[in-house]
Please model this.
Amino acid sequence: MGMVKATIDGSDVLVPEGTTILQAAKGAGIRIPTLCFHERLKPIGSCGLCIVEVAGKATPVGSCETPVTDGMTVTTRSDRLFSLRQDILKSILAHHPLDCPICDKAGECLLQDLVFEHGITGVEPPAPSPKFTAPYATTFLKSWPERCVLCLRCVKACTEIQGIGALSVAEEQDGQRIAYDQDKCVSCGECIQVCPTGALVEKKTELRWRTWEVDKKIRTTCPYCGVGCQQLLHVKDGRIVKVSGVEDAEPNRGRLCVKGRYGYDFIYSEDRLKTPLIRENGYFREASFEEAIDLVARRFKEIIAESGPDAIGAVSCARSINEDSYQMQKLFRAVIGTNNIDHCART
Amino acid sequence: MFMVIGSNMTEAHPVASTFVKNAVQNGAELIVVDPRKHKLCDFATLHLRLKIGSDIALLNAIMQVLITEDLYDRRFVDSCTMGFDELKQKVMAYSPERVADICGIDPELIRTTARRLASVKPVMLCYTLGVTEHTCGVNNVLTVANLQMLLGNMGVECGGVNPLRGQNNVQGACDMGALPNVFPGYQAVTNPELREKFAKAWGVKDLPGKPGLMLPQMMEGLVTKKIRAFYIFGENLANTEPDIRKVEHELASAEFIVCQDIFQTETTRFAHVIFPAAAWSENDGTFSNSERRVSRVRTASPPPGLAKPNWWIFKQIAKRMGHEWLSDSARELWDNEISVLAPSMKGIKYSRLENNGLQWPCPNEDHPGTCFLHQGGEFTCGLGRFRAVEWTPPAEVPDRDYPFVLSTGRRLYHYHTRTQTGRAVGMNQLLGEETADLAPVDAAAMGIANGEIIRLRSRRGEVKVKARLTDEVLPGTVWTAFHFRDACANWLTNAVFDPISQTAEYKACAVAVEKLQEQATG
Ligand code: SF4
Ligand code: SF4
Ligand code: SF4
Ligand code: FES
Model:
């Protein structure tokens, strides 16, 4: 593939043909403000914020969609661009409720950040309008149609990434609206993960928190199927409050399914086993580890003495960590002295 | 191109299915081989709706066409494989016309499929339990491999055979030696040198050299008293194993059962001692996914009450039995024991697992890991060996008393016996009960309406369950899952096993479908 040379804000860049101005700028360490663009989606081109000036062109071009051509000279910051971007943001705010104090997204909202960055003050009181054909809520998510900025990330994510197509764009007389089809939706939450605003929010838990109160985001591996998706656990006060996909991780590249995103809270169930139990006269009674371990070790020793080690068998857990399975087979092979160990790979 | 056999990916491996869909959206072809018309079929160029359990006949016929029409990869077959002549001899008997009835597939469609497969390279073949959960499961897997070798799709990126693992750490449990015949890293217990190596590492004089029993044999041993004590770590055998009545009889016969779990389950009812274990996100460790990628699992919150990490509990038992083990965390177990003892994982250390993990084989600490096996046509035993096999029908086929084929599987919103998803807020709302999926024509013939409670009966048991009429299933078949105890398919399934892998035939047994008598009114 051929390479092309260009100048962005005075720096020379050399990039493969087909690279967009936005990508080239990023590679050169130059940030261009964007709203609808998302790394995992093809350029959408709906917001217009990413405009830049190209020498020889009268009007600015969208950098997320325009490829670099040889000899191009690009300017990403200028007074004109700044005020054009301000105008775009103002027109969004004209139809966006100033919900920040009650919006779950506040603090992690791209719109909020862009408005702040562009120093927009004194907007007229907004006249919010719903940008969805109808508001909706599912078991795990709720829409706030007034907050939507019609960036279309969610629609693209649902079709392009998940291949579901539960979200679509309806062209109505007064403009575009987002339409949602409940029968198609599989509750994967990809739409929430990419939404830059509070137009789509989670309602998995009754707990409420501000985004900045999350004290840890811990990367881990999903406990459900063999895909092994990488998750980010949002932890507040020692409790997982939310799970999201790790954006640039292998193997899932940000994606999760309904189990990976919303199946985490079984660990907080009241039904959890909390102490060892020993059966006595047909009933279980609570016991200490000390006592339970003594009993197991004693019975195993008796059985080995009477019938040999092959009279004991074990099945390990295909859900638990590697180290647990390793440790169990070591217990059976080295301590008990049998190879009677298997697991449920077969089921 | 992708070929997906016996895998309801969109529900069982949802995120993997999104990548297949993306490839199709970007122009790749997809061939689905499955009795059920599941969601992925919407993306398929071809859907071969074969009869349940006829996979080998179909794949052999595809190979027959490839050989007859000289479409196979001669170069790969000549240089990288052995046993072609025997394969040829066997599959030549499977003409598309002959298998048409066995599979319920038009001979022309079989030919088209073979030609399509031969026209594109590479083809990645994915399969899951629809292939393995048969009495001929091992033979199914061999046949799948035969096809890919014949097409020369082995050892190339985006080619090969890609078994999608069901549970999150099935791969890991195998890798770690939770199998009766191998130590960690697939090192045979029958090899005296390996036994010596492990004995030395574990501080014992010697280790048993005779392969142990597989799970179904151990379960049967509980009844014959050959097995007197049974340690069940985290598996709900009383719901997941075929023929619940038989399983419960076996568990009830046991002299001493230890269970280690995070919840009481149908299985812990049979325990004499239960240990409370730390769950996912309550301790550090690693999982290995279907691609052999070792990834970190990290602690987010502490376990409840006295619950402890599983490895810790095993360590305490060893101690009471006179063995002092040094490692005192999952990290120490991995870095100081597992990666030292398993050559294929030697280069994997916790310090290298911070981000995307590593795929074994990874023989040293500078090695980047291996993303696809059999690179350049190299197989573990040198040349790839064709192992031709004959088709055999499922152990139990429909007859007059039990005219339907029951097949089982998983659904999107739940996981196995729901010990976890059933306790995750909202999941039961998305899917609150089991259904028996039934073809509308069959339902009409019996006067069964959508949503009506019906009875499924096999030689082993019966369940009452809501009928769901759908074209997803072929006439003559009924499909259900094992997520809900009352309607659990395993009251019905047949406890017959593949002779080699001892995998149960969950995917086929014979049942009767019955309309319930009208409820007496008043
Ligand atoms: S949850 Fe998933 S399927 Fe449903 S609308 Fe969002 S992206 Fe689409
Ligand atoms: S709901 Fe969110 S992602 Fe979708 S168009 Fe509106 S703002 Fe964009
Ligand atoms: S998020 Fe879904 S697809 Fe990914 S590992 Fe978990 S269960 Fe599997
Ligand atoms: S980021 Fe380019 S148009 Fe929105």
